[in-house]
Amino acid sequence: ENDETLKEFLIRGLSELSKVKPGNKLEVVEYFGKWLLENNPNKPLIDEPEIEDDENFESMTFKQKLQHFLSNDEIKIVFILGGPGSGKGTQCKQIVEKYGYVQISTGDLFRECVND
C-alpha cells in the first residue's frame, strides 16, 4: 500500500521533471502528464480522443488543443504574480473560496523539492 500523499507524489514528479529539463512549455506539460500517468498508483484507464486531422491539430496552440479535448468548454487559468509578502496567498485563498478554483502554489511545491 502506498502511503505517499498527493503533494508528495507531485513533488516527486516535479523533481523528475527538473532532472529531464524538457525544452519548451508544451514539452514540459507533455512530459509531466506522461510521468503522472506512468507513475500513478491507481493506474487509471484513459481513452485517448481521436484526432481528426493530425496536420491541423499540430498547428493548434496548447489552449486550442485543451478546448478540442474538452468539447470546446472554456478553460480558465489564473496566474497570480507578485513579490514576497505582496498578498498572493491571501488573494488566492479568496479566489478559491469565492469561485471554487483549485490553487497550485508552485512556490510551495518547489520549496519542498529543494528541502527534500
Fold blueprint:
Blueprint: H1 6-20, H2 25-39, H3 54-58, H4 62-69, H5 88-99, H6 106-115
> How much beta, percentage-wise?
under 5%
The ordered string of helix (H) and strand (E) elements is HHHHHH
Helix content: 55-70%
Oligomer: single chain
Instruction: Give average pLDDT, whole number.
Output: 78
Q: How would you classify the helix and strand content by structural class?
A: mainly alpha
Number of discrete helical segments? 6
Gap from first CA to last CA: 22 Å
Rg (C-alpha, Å): 17 Å
Based on DSSP secondary structure assignment, what is the total number of beta strands?
0
Overall geometric form: globular
Major pleated sheet: none
* Low-pLDDT runs: none
Please supply descriptive tags for the structure shown above.
116 residues; mainly alpha; 6 helices; globular
Q: What features would you describe in this structure?
A:
This protein is mainly α. The protein is about 55% helix and about 0% strand. The chain has 6 helices and no strands. The longest helix has 15 residues, at about 5-20. The radius of gyration is 17 Å and the shape is globular.
In short:
The protein has 116 residues and is an all-alpha fold. Helix content is 56%, strand content 0%. The chain has 6 helices and no strands.
